[in-house]
Amino acid sequence: MRSGASRVRLGLLTAAAVVTAGGGLVVTGNALAETGPTTTAAACGRFFDDFSYATTGDAAFAGQGWRVRNYAGGPGVSGAAWSASNVSFADVDGQRAAQLRGSTDGTAAGTTQAEFYQAEKRFLEGTYAARIKLSDTPVSGPDGDHVNQTFFAMGPVQRFDYDPLYSELDFTEYLPNGGWGTDGPTNYQTSYNGFRADPWDPYNASDAQDGSLAGWHTVVGQAVDGRVTYFVDGVQVAEHTVDYKDGSRSVFPRVEMGLNFNLWFIDLAGHSGGRATYQEHVDWVYYADEEAVSPAELEARTAAYRAAGTAREDTLGSC
């Protein structure tokens, strides 16, 4: 649950189409400097994957650091399964993409969820981005479930309640059927510094926008100089520095994190019968270490990967 979220009405955001602009920012230490076109940016300290795999069993998938979750636990419905078979790859709208699938029959035993993630935690200050296809309706079965479609970065689990080292950035948590006190499509961005799970009491900053985000969207998070700025399709939707609880804690990440995508059910309250199956797709993911990269520059960089036929790159730690 995201307590203390501020809310604005944005309606439907359309996908950005800028692929030639080159106005990024490069961070060196604590100084920000303007960059020119894409070709001038440093080639080291980057991670990119366009998910052009056949299956999760491909050696290249594991070689790029990805793992598929198959162990029990939160978040989501207690007793639900995290099934490795719920992560696959498919051709979607003419492009190969990662596919997450979750389904429920309204019972915990009949609920399966999906997640894949970077096993090594090596992402901290920099720019995070992904092109994601979100959905408002199930691919089969009745609609209405409180499903959450996500992209986030998260550090090690808490050592104790309110752990001040706990770091998590939720770039998107999309609830097409509401939940967490909402009754319609809602998209959240949340930055953490510790929490108590039961009863729920977080030190976080959280913002949300009402309105459908069905379709493809580019989601960006810039974590630079103590500030986390979130964008959807080039539009800034949130900016976080300290928690919204009492302003006593920085929500800028304090330890290195992993990259995660998952699809899970908040609860079973919205289920209306039968089995419903939902999907989320990921076209590509990108990270630039210690850079604040503009959304337009990100579009240019990922277009350059595609034009060069580069399916993946990992130069983190090479600078």
TrEMBL record:
GO molecular function, one term: hydrolase activity, hydrolyzing O-glycosyl compounds
GO biological process: carbohydrate metabolic process
Gene3D superfamilies: 2.60.120.200
Domain GH16: 32-293
InterPro entries: Beta-glucanase-like, ConA-like_dom_sf
Protein name per UniProt: GH16 domain-containing protein
